[in-house]
Amino acid sequence: MLKTALLVSVLCIGVLTSPSLAAGNTPANAPGTLKVLFIGNSHVFVNNVTARVRKRLQALKGRTTIRAITRGGARLLSFTHRQDVAAAIAANDWDVVVLQEATASFLSSQGRRNFHQAIRWFTQKIPRRTQIVLYQTWPWRADSRYFAGTSSNSISLWKAMQHAYGKAAKRARITIAPVGRCWMNSVKRGSLYSSDGNHASIAGSSLAASVIARTIAGRSQRRC
Question: Which CATH number covers residue 45?
């Protein structure tokens, strides 16, 4: 199932639902509803992270609706060239926009420059009243096939990721959801990866959802 999800480009614009989280339970225009938009790639839609975030936000903040614009393997810069992304940002009064960058972007200086370019575009397009949250992901597992043909390793990649996220947050009105930090500090880190050494297992996605929800709700992170 994971391989299939990665081979198929996914565009998901609309309220995300699951059997336990039907969209009808929380109308987007209901007074007091927290409105969250996710923009990213498979780290958003694998294991339905957004539905997990919504469930946790319901408990922390009350009524919540989440929408997502995603494409497998996409880098943030690619979304800045899409009219549907700009339209979605402009047409909806979002409380929070969550941005998620591809891990591969942090392997090279050009990739990191592209990341910062994308962040500048989003901060210019997103209204100032809207909270911007960076979904900080994690480095590939040390034995991951994704390192083949690169000069990087899990530790150097993680250092590059931390530096880039920190730099972006300092430059703009951005909050970091420290999923990667909590992931790397977890005593159960090995179990958080799926078999490909890149994506999250169910446990990893649960961790990600918890950290993102607590960040949006302004709660301190546990064991991070």
Answer: 3.40.50.1110
Domain assignment present for residue 109? The answer is yes
Gap between the Cα atoms of 79 and 97, Å rounded: 13
Q: Which domain holds residue 194?
A: 2-216
Tell me the torsion sign for CA atoms 144, 148, 151, 157. Answer: negative
Under 8 Å CB-to-CB from 164, ≥6 apart: which residues? 106, 112, 115, 116
Helix residue spans in 48-200 (DSSP H): 49-61, 76-79, 83-91, 109-125, 154-171, 179-185, 189-192
Q: pTM, whole model, 2 decimals?
A: 0.86
Q: Report the C-alpha gap between 120 and 171 in whole angstroms.
A: 9
Q: Which helix (H) or strand (E) holds 81?
A: none
Say if CB 212 and CB 182 are below 8 A apart.
no
Q: Would you say residue 181 lies in a domain? A: yes
pLDDT in tens, 6-18: 433 333 433 333 3
The Cα 76–Cα 122 span in angstroms is 9
Give 89-117 pLDDT, tens digit per residue: 999 999 999 999 999 999 999 999 999 99
